[in-house]
Automatic annotation (TrEMBL):
Pfam families: TerB
Protein name in the entry: Co-chaperone DjlA N-terminal domain-containing protein
InterPro entries: DjlA_N (IPR007791), TerB-like (IPR029024)
Signal sequence, renumbered to the chain: none
Transmembrane segments: none
SUPFAM superfamilies: TerB-like (SSF158682)
Species of origin: Paracoccus kondratievae
Co-chaperone DjlA N-terminal domain sequence ranges: 26-141
Entry superkingdom: Bacteria
């Protein structure tokens, strides 16, 4: 199952077909996991935040979201580099949804209450790779900080 999904996600880049809903959500979940693992501290708080984001995005139950995250953890561990991974999402997910993905990434980045330079750098890199401009990424970042009760410094 996971091998087939990896094949679909990273198939020939000339294939401009949209990922189906389930594949696209696993790709997004995998990107969230990749971010949470960026600082080598992938804990329960980040896992729970990813579950919340996934549940909110597609109306999943808590159990369904946790299952999707578990699948994403396996996919992320085998996925190629972030550049190729995000290229796949950019080619197959609409811009408006990519902006929401960046907002979710910022939310996960700050979920543990820590400002980590590796995570922040990865979100900025992914935003650029997904074609989300700096202004929209900064607005999403500030909203995530506000929502989590953190002060921007």
């Amino acid at each position: 199952m996971f091998r087939n999904l990896l094949t679909r996600l990273f198939a020939d880049s000339t294939d401009q077909t949209r990922l189906n809903g389930q594949d696209a959500e696993v790709a997004v979940a995998s990107l969230l996991v990749r971010l949470a693992r960026a600082d080598d501290h992938y804990g329960v708080v980040e896992q729970q935040r990813i579950d919340q984001v996934l549940a909110r995005r597609r109306g999943l139950t808590r159990i369904e979201a946790a299952e999707k995250r578990a699948a994403a953890e396996m996919i992320e561990a085998e996925a190629p580099d972030t550049v190729r991974f995000t290229r796949t999402i950019k080619e197959r997910v609409e811009l408006q949804d990519r902006q929401k993905i960046i907002a979710a990434l910022w939310e996960v980045a700050y979920a543990d209450g820590q400002r980590d330079p590796e995570e922040e750098a990865l979100v900025r890199l992914v935003a650029g790779l997904l074609g989300v401009n700096d202004r929209d990424s900064a607005l999403a970042r500030n909203q995530a900080l506000d929502d989590l009760g953190q002060v921007d410094s």
